[in-house]
Write a structure and sequence with these properties.
It is a single chain. By secondary structure, this protein is α/β, with parallel strands linked by helices. It has one domain: Response regulator (Rossmann fold, 3-Layer(aba) Sandwich), CATH 3.40.50.2300. Helices cover about 40% and strands about 15% of the residues. It contains 5 helices and 5 strands. The chain has helices spanning about 15-30, 40-50, 75-85, 100-110, 125-140, and strands at about 10-15, 35-40, 65, 95, 115-120. Strand 3, helix 3 (about 75-85) and strand 4 form a beta-alpha-beta unit. Helix 2 (about 40-50) runs parallel beside helix 3. The termini are close together.
Amino acid sequence: MPTETGYKRIFLIEDNRGDIRLIQEALKSTAAQCEVIVARDGMEAMAYLRQDGEFAEATLPDLILLDLNLPKKDGREVLAEIKSDPALKHIPVIVLSTSRNEEDISKSYDLHVNCYISKSRNLSELFKIVRGIEEFWLETATLPSEGK
């Protein structure tokens, strides 16, 4: 569901400022025109997605990139809430986490994550991962329209 300007909206739920900056830079280097919205904790993320309070006019994203280890509300809780909410469950969620813990991976898929990707600390690898996400999820995959 492109915006009126043709941009895709990516909702990045990440608390690490360095990772936020790197992911934003990696997305700028891709061919897709993206608007990146950032939430730095799980409570803010759910307020945005549910269009509560200051986010009453927020537009739902096309894709969610979710870190698991977040303050205030854990990424696993955020994922469970998104996938159990009829208004949100259609939005693809990609867990992008440094965790390679098998329990985290299994639990994420049990909660219906669309994809689990282990985040690399290597800058060129991280750019490659983000380009792959952009290429597949924003250029190749057919995403549902808002409100479906």
